[in-house]
Amino acid sequence: MKLEKWIRSISSTLAFLIIYIVALSFYLGIKGFQIDEQGNIVLQGSEVQASETKRNMLSTALSLPYGHTLGRASAPITIYEYSSFGCSHCADFHESTLPKLKENYIDKGLVKLAFTPFPLDKTSLKAAVLAECMPSSKYFDFVNELFDSQRSWGLSFNSEKALSKIAQKYGLSEQRAESCMKDLTTAQEILNQRQEAIRTINIEGTPTFVLAAKNSREIIYGYISYEELKEKIDKLQ
Questions:
Q1: Contact at 8 Å (CB) between 144 and 70?
Q2: Pair 187, 72 in one domain
Q3: How many domains does the chain divide into?
Q4: Would the pTM of this model clear 0.70, i.e. be above it?
């Protein structure tokens, strides 16, 4: 009898674990995540992230919107960035490449960064809409915070509440943050910018960059390291 109870107990435990794993995988799939071979939770390929870096030249006559700009307006080189807040490769750029780029080029007036949100999912769209409620002086701090805390709000069962808590750190009240995320007009404007970028630049995934100088327009699909970007910038100076 004891053996039968033990077997039933083990069977019940295994059944629970199987159900839990299936449910977790389903939930992560909805959120745009998956479990890799090492058991880590990562953003999945269906997020249409530009994992492979490809480059094409664009016409210098192509006019691009500035979006939110970091750096001096007079900077001779502009890097146009199109990123989704739920994209891990975009987070890599903001965590690994942008700090060095800012220190060595943006802060010295040599380069400016023009950021345009390119949401790939509903939660990233909510985050982009919420960012528009930030004062211009706090916009990029909030953007970097969203990328830094990507997993926490991306995996949350209540992503809007998680995003609201982040916004409150930057001065928005809970009520104001909730109201911002329901702003359909701003959401439509962001989606219109997204479609325009697809039409003019043929964006295939995120991140996508356009490195622009007076006589040059180069499009870069995918994550780019600081060293690689530095080499390109130095050639344009």
A1: no
A2: yes
A3: 2
A4: yes
SS3 state of residue 185: helix
- Write the DSSP symbol of residue 206: B
pLDDT digits over 3-52, tens only? 555 555 555 555 544 554 444 454 445 444 444 444 443 444 334 455 44
* Shared domain check, 112 and 13: no
Question: Are 56 and 166 within one domain?
Answer: yes
β-strand partners of 55: 220
Question: Does the residue 169 lie in any domain?
Answer: yes
> For 120-183, where are the alpha helices, taking DSSP H only?
122-131, 139-148, 150-154, 159-168, 174-181
Do 75 and 12 lie in one domain? The reply is no
Count of other CB atoms within 10 angstroms of residue 214: 8
Contact in structure between 127 and 146 (CB atoms under 8 Å): yes
Q: Is residue 40 part of a domain?
A: no
In this model, does residue 202 exceed pLDDT 80? yes
Domain that holds residue 8: 2-31
Nearest to 70 by CA among 118, 128, 110: 110
Report DSSP state, residue 146: H
